């Protein structure tokens, strides 16, 4: 019922030409979606929350919820399209560190193929390996051993990729700046000097290094490290 009410408010907001009424309806929808999100971890729910924040012009929180949805809905085309829209609307474009770019180029199959697609490939290659092994050892079909070896190698590569996904999700905590503008500091307090010449803006992504009281020690995509006030960001 709560989910249905939220969807109804969202669609009413989309249909009205009154900006003030639309905002009120979106906010009502958001309250219900987030009420459910406190108890339910669901990709579609996070996707709807992200859509609502987009309608409310909150880029930071939209990105947070799209990233949460991405973990549960890998390969979803609508999510990928909306996520790309949000990324292009960000004010800060922090470039990826060169060594990470190199890794992403060399191991493109790990970064470009979704988790589910790699599982499908792994299952298919695993089956083919045992078929090839069976033909090699239990029949007289002249199957080159290089085929069996290649299939085994591909299985090991994909298995390593999937295990890496698992351990990465367990060990790496990511987050997003949600404040419209925030000054990153060189330490965990407002008395420290600014880390950068310009403030950070909503939608800037980071990896969490340390959490200390009301401050987060983070690393940006380009390798830059700084401290952010806890209330300025949300963890994925």
Sheet bearing the most strands, described? 5 strands, antiparallel
Order of adjacent strands in the largest pleated sheet: 6-5-4-1-7
DSSP strand content:
5-15%
**Uncertain regions: pLDDT < 50 for 5+ in a row?**
none
Helix content: 55-70%
Give the overall silhouette. Answer: globular
Q: Tally of extended strands?
A: 7
The sequence of SSEs as H and E is HHHHHHHHHEEEEEEE
Cα end-to-end separation? 27 Å
Structural class: alpha+beta
Radius of gyration: 23 Å
In oligomeric terms, what are we looking at?
single chain
Helical stretch tally: 9
Mean pLDDT: 89
Describe the protein.
By secondary structure, the chain is an alpha+beta fold. It contains nine helices and seven strands. The strands form two sheets. The protein has a five-stranded antiparallel β-sheet. A two-stranded antiparallel ribbon has the order 2-3. β4 and β5 (215-220) form a beta hairpin. α1 runs antiparallel to α2, α4 packs antiparallel against α5 (77-89) and α8 (115-138) packs antiparallel against α9. It is globular and about 75 Å long. It starts with a helix and ends with a strand.
